[in-house]
Write a structure and sequence with these properties.
This protein has 3 helices and 3 strands, in the order E-E-H-H-H-E. By secondary structure, the chain is α+β, with helices and mostly antiparallel strands. A 3-stranded antiparallel β-sheet has the order 2-1-3. The mean pLDDT is 87.
Length: 97
Amino acid sequence: MSSTQTMKLVVTLSDADAQEISVVYSDLVKYDIIRARNNFPKREESEFLFMGIVAYAAMSRTGKIANLAVDKFLDKIEVIEPVEDEAEAEFPVSESD
C-alpha cells in the first residue's frame, strides 16, 4: 500500500448500516500491536482476522466506533468487503451474437 493508495473496505456490523472506511498505514501498525498484545495468529495464518482487526483500527481511528473492545467488535462483524476501483475492475467480455 503506497502513500497514494489506500485500502478501502465496506464494513457491516450487526447493529449498524454498512460503512465505507479507508485503511491507512497507522491502522496496519495498530493491527500489529493488537495482534501481538492478544497473541493472535499472524496475518499469513489468519487472513479473516487480519481484515477484522484492520477494520477495527480504521473505525476506531475515525470515530465510527467508540469504547468497543476488539473482541466485541469482531463478534459484531457481518460482512467486510473490499471496495473495487471501477477503473481497475474486470468486467466479463460480452458475447457477440
